[in-house]
From TrEMBL:
This is Lon proteolytic domain-containing protein. It comes from the Eukaryota. It comes from Punica granatum. GO terms for biological process: recombinational repair.
Amino acid sequence: MIISVLVKQAGLKLQENAIFLNVVSGVTLSETAGDLGVAAAICSSFLEFPIPSGIAFIGEVGLGGELRTVPRMEKRVNTLAKLGYRTCIVPKSAEKVLEASDFGDMMIIGCRNLKEVINKVFVT
């Protein structure tokens, strides 16, 4: 589904590419919080532009390309901050709530849809 949304809503021409997703052995993707990270990984490979070091992604991707918040956002971002991530891309709807929390030096960037994520992460 994420590939279809990237084609339709973000305008990436992925139709002629074989796309394989490999996750760490033993990990099962059983919730939607990883949708945005998977989409970012596909964009990174297709655009041949590496994801900058220290960036994490949390959020669900809807059929219209919109980003949706997921449960326990504050706890997830706090864990990322403790792991040393410096930037976290989240749905715009979660940005204000997260900015009220103290995550040290971590920068929270809210995006409404996949196009915004691509423009903020992959466009120099």
